[in-house]
Design goal:
The chain is an alpha/beta fold. It contains 18 helices and 10 strands. The protein is globular. The N terminus and C terminus are likely disordered.
Length: about 450
C-alpha cells in the first residue's frame, strides 16, 4: 500500500483540496487541484490526485498517482502519471509531471508527444509549439512535424504552420501509418480554408469569425457585443437566449446562402423539440418547405438549435454520426454552439457561440419585483406557435456594453463570398484530436 496516503499535504492550496475530499466534495477538490497543479510540489499533487481518483473509481490513475507520490523524482512515474491524467480527462494535472519527465529524458519522443497532447487538450497550443520547436531538428515527420504545424495553426501562427506543412507536402513525407491520413487531410483543409478566408478576414488575434471558419469550416453569423475586450472576442458566456437572437441568426444564415450561391430546396426538421421549433421558423424565413430529417439529403438545410442537446435526444448520436459527412449541397445550421464543449460535428453555419445557454422557451430565471430571483415555467405551447413568435421578433442587435466593434452584415457576407469554393467541403470534425494515443512506455 502507498505509505503516504494518510498524510495531509503541506501546501495551503492542496490542503484545501484535501479538506474538500474530507467533506466528500470531489468537484471542489478538482477545482483546487486544477488551479494549483502548476505551482505545488509534484509529490503533493500526486498525493491529492490519488485520493481523488480513488473517490472517482479511477483505479489506473490512483495507482499511477500513488507511485509518483512515493517516487516523485523518477521519470517513468512522472510519465505514467501524466499519461493516466490525460486518459482520465485532467490534462492540466499531467503537464507539470510530463514537463519534468521531458527535462530528464529530452530524447524521448513518447514523453514529448504525450506532453503535446496534454497541452492541446488544455487549448495551450502556443506552449505545444514552443516545446516542439525546441526540438525541431530531431522531429520525425509523423506525428511530430505534423503536430508542430497543427499547433502553430491553432495558435494563430499561419507562417510557421505553412512552413512546417510544406515540409510534409512531398509524397515521400506522407505518413506510413494510415491512422494519420485523416489528420493530414484535416490540416490540408484547414490551410486551404485559411487561404480563402484571408481574402476577406484579417485572421488576427481578435478575428473570431475568421478563425472559426479556418478551424472547422463554420461561418459564424453573429458576435456577442459583451466582454469583447476582456477576451471574449464575440463569444457569449452565460446567455438566456431570445427569439430576437434566433431570428437574427436565421436572417444571417439566409444572407450566407445568398452570398455563397447555395440554393437549398427544403428545411429538414430534426426530432428534438428545440430544433423542431427553430426549423419551422427557418422554413418561414428562407421561404422553403419543411419536412422531417431523413439523413443525407442533397439540397436540404438541416436546422439544429444546439447540437449538444440533440446528442442527448432519442436517435441523437445516430443523427450526428450521419451528419459528419453530408450530402452535396446539404447545409447544417446550428443556432447556438458551445465553445467550451464543442459538439461532435461542426456545423456549416452557426448563429452564435456560448458557454451556457437557456433556450427562449425553456424554464428561465427571472427577477421578481421585490428583487428575488425566481423561475418562469417552460413554454409548452405547440412548436408552430413559438416558431411564429420567432419570425415576428426584432432582429436588431443589442448595443452590448460598448466594448465590441460594429458587426455589419457585409463583413459576414464578404467572408462568405470569399470562402464559397471551400465551404461545405469534407468531413466536419467537431472535436479536434492530435491523433492516436502513444505507447504507455516512454523508452
Amino acid at each position: 500500500m502507498f505509505s503516504r496516503k494518510n498524510r495531509r499535504p503541506k501546501s495551503p492550496e492542496l490542503l484545501k483540496a484535501w479538506e474538500s475530499l474530507d467533506s466528500g466534495d470531489l468537484p471542489g477538490a478538482l477545482r483546487v487541484l486544477r488551479a494549483s497543479a502548476g505551482e505545488a510540489p509534484l509529490a503533493e499533487v500526486a498525493q491529492v490526485t490519488a485520493r481523488a481518483a480513488a473517490a472517482a473509481g479511477f483505479d489506473d490513475l490512483r495507482q499511477a498517482a500513488e507511485a509518483l507520490a512515493a517516487r516523485p523524482e523518477r521519470a517513468q512515474e512522472q510519465y505514467d502519471f501524466g499519461y493516466a491524467c490525460v486518459e482520465r480527462g485532467v490534462p492540466v494535472l499531467a503537464i507539470p509531471a510530463l514537463g519534468e519527465a521531458l527535462r530528464q529524458v529530452p530524447q524521448s519522443a513518447a514523453v514529448l508527444r504525450e506532453l503535446v497532447t496534454a497541452y492541446e487538450r488544455e487549448g495551450r497550443h502556443r506552449e505545444a509549439v514552443t516545446v516542439l520547436s525546441a526540438r525541431e531538428e530531431t522531429l520525425a515527420d509523423w506525428p511530430d512535424r505534423y503536430l508542430l504545424a497543427y499547433n502553430a495553426l491553432m495558435s494563430g501562427d499561419l507562417v510557421l504552420a505553412r512552413h512546417q506543412h510544406d515540409l510534409l507536402s512531398d509524397p515521400a513525407a506522407d505518413p506510413e501509418d494510415q491512422v494519420w491520413l485523416p489528420a493530414r487531410d484535416r490540416q490540408r483543409a484547414m490551410l486551404q480554408r485559411a487561404a480563402s478566408a484571408a481574402q476577406a478576414s484579417p485572421l488576427d488575434g481578435s478575428d473570431l469569425r475568421g478563425w472559426q471558419y479556418v478551424m472547422g469550416g463554420t461561418l459564424l453569423g453573429t458576435l456577442s457585443p459583451f466582454g469583447f475586450d476582456a477576451g471574449m472576442n464575440g463569444r457569449y458566456a452565460w446567455l438566456q437566449d431570445s427569439c430576437d437572437l434566433c431570428l437574427r441568426g436565421l436572417l444571417r444564415l439566409k444572407a450566407v446562402l445568398e452570398a455563397t450561391g447555395v440554393r437549398p430546396d427544403a428545411v429538414a426538421l430534426l426530432p428534438d423539440r428545440d430544433s423542431h421549433i427553430l426549423g419551422l421558423a427557418a422554413a418561414e424565413v428562407l421561404g422553403l418547405p419543411a419536412r422531417p430529417f431523413e439523413g443525407a439529403e442533397p439540397g436540404t438545410v438541416v436546422v439544429a438549435h444546439d447540437l449538444n442537446e440533440l446528442a442527448g435526444a432519442e436517435r441523437g448520436p445516430e443523427i450526428l454520426a450521419g451528419l459528419r459527412e453530408r450530402a452535396p449541397g446539404q447545409v447544417l445550421h446550428e443556432h447556438a454552439s458551445c465553445w467550451t464543449d464543442p459538439p461532435a460535428v461542426a456545423a456549416d453555419s452557426v448563429g452564435l457561440l456560448h458557454q451556457h445557454l437557456t433556450a427562449p422557451w425553456a424554464e428561465r430565471m427571472r427577477l421578481d419585483e421585490d428583487g428575488e430571483v425566481g423561475q418562469t415555467p417552460a413554454d409548452d405551447r405547440p412548436a408552430a406557435e413559438i416558431a411564429a413568435e420567432i419570425t415576428a421578433a426584432d432582429p436588431t442587435p443589442d448595443e452590448g456594453d460598448g466594448s465590441a466593434p460594429a458587426d455589419p452584415l457585409d463583413r459576414l457576407t464578404d467572408l462568405a463570398s470569399a470562402v464559397a469554393d471551400t465551404w461545405l467541403r469534407g468531413p466536419r470534425d467537431g472535436l479536434r484530436s492530435a491523433g492516436p494515443v502513444p505507447s504507455s512506455r516512454f523508452a
